[in-house]
Amino acid sequence: MRYQSQRIAQIPPYMFAEFKKKKLMMQKAGVDVIDLGIGDPDLPTPKHIRDKLIEEMAYPENFKYPSFIGCFEFRQAVADFYKQQFNVDLDPETEVLALIGSKEGLAHLVPSVIDPGEIVLAPDPGYPPYRMAVSLAGGQLFTMPLLKENNFEPEFQNIPENIANEAKLMFLNYPGNPTSATVDIDFFQRAVSFAEKNKIVIAHDAAYNMVTFDDYRAPSILQAEGAKETAVEFGSLSKTYSMTGWRIGYVVGNKEVIKALSVYKSNTDTGQFTPIQKAAAHALKSSQDCVKASNDIYAGRMKAMTDALASIGVNTAPARGTFFIWAPVPRGYTSAEFANTVLEKTGVIITPGHAFGTAGEGYFRISLSVPTDRLTEAINRMKKELTIITN
Ligand SMILES: *Cc1c(COP(=O)(O)O)cnc(C)c1O
């Protein structure tokens, strides 16, 4: 009896599930573990969004099957948000689709756009679901290394011509997880030209587009000229409004791609619960002061941790976006060795860079989405216990 397809059997266990096991074991052994591994906001969802959910729970018509493509209010709110933030016009009927979190859409996009055996380009290091979705769809992955000397941007001119010609889909992600790299609009313009020339669909994952600091504002790829011919952009309420558990996101842009994904989805799921969509619409339409407030908190933590790392010999510039620090491991360590050393000496979990792809080797990622007092405790332990290893 065979219980698993080849495609499932070849998927390694979800990285964070493994870390969770290790964490539980250490906690059982009495260690006060501080988890800087997973990126999941500790801050509560702002009250006006929670209140809107409760209000919408009073209407029985909201309890029925939702619309497949998302309720009109949500799609209109996304379109208005794009106009206001990026001056991009979107037709809420054809260019906006609601998702049950953007991870759902990113994963289902692959079989909606490619056939088995076809090539997909994805960043390395990158968010693991991109490559797993390619694997599950029977696609062929071609990774684009992201190097520090190129601002963690892929070098399109280094992609072999036959690969570029045959590729059907390309994932991009800025502000980036795990690299925390940010780009300006000319990068997106170059990406769109490359994709147009080679007839590649671009899937830009903009999960952190509102988690930015100082006066940096992340552009939308749809601001690039001709972008709607090739690109879709995935947005999420998860990180912006601390709504990871709510499972609500969207995809905007090229209407043919959106149509293909909506066919897939209408045969797979039945949309997110309407009160959640309405509360999400409310979040997008309301004042964005709550976003500024959470970003200020992340910026403060970013500075504190960056300074602490500098004091133990790990130098990295504070990022302009995301709540991650992506830094090189001290000399003499692999990513895994450094993460293990930190865990054993301090009880702090950090993510080894190779978990995001082979080009992530030599780096580690710290997530700042833990309460500030816990982060301070982690910083104190690291300063106390780790000085020795870097000298
Ligand atoms: C968190 C995250 C997502 C997932 O967001 P959801 O909308 O909660 O599914 C997508 N992409 C990246 C890079 C992320 O870090």
From TrEMBL:
<dbReference type="InterPro" id="IPR004838">
    <property type="entry name" value="NHTrfase_class1_PyrdxlP-BS"/>
</dbReference>
<keyword id="KW-0032">Aminotransferase</keyword>
<dbReference type="InterPro" id="IPR015424">
    <property type="entry name" value="PyrdxlP-dep_Trfase"/>
</dbReference>
<protein>
    <recommendedName>
        <fullName>Aminotransferase</fullName>
        <ecNumber>2.6.1.-</ecNumber>
    </recommendedName>
</protein>
<keyword id="KW-0808">Transferase</keyword>
<dbReference type="GO" id="GO:0008483">
    <property type="term" value="F:transaminase activity"/>
</dbReference>
<feature type="domain" description="Aminotransferase class I/classII large">
    <location>
        <begin position="32"/>
        <end position="381"/>
    </location>
</feature>
<dbReference type="InterPro" id="IPR015421">
    <property type="entry name" value="PyrdxlP-dep_Trfase_major"/>
</dbReference>
<dbReference type="InterPro" id="IPR015422">
    <property type="entry name" value="PyrdxlP-dep_Trfase_small"/>
</dbReference>
<comment type="similarity">
    <text>Belongs to the class-I pyridoxal-phosphate-dependent aminotransferase family.</text>
</comment>
<dbReference type="InterPro" id="IPR004839">
    <property type="entry name" value="Aminotransferase_I/II_large"/>
</dbReference>
<dbReference type="Pfam" id="PF00155">
    <property type="entry name" value="Aminotran_1_2"/>
</dbReference>
<dbReference type="GO" id="GO:0030170">
    <property type="term" value="F:pyridoxal phosphate binding"/>
</dbReference>
<dbReference type="InterPro" id="IPR050881">
    <property type="entry name" value="LL-DAP_aminotransferase"/>
</dbReference>
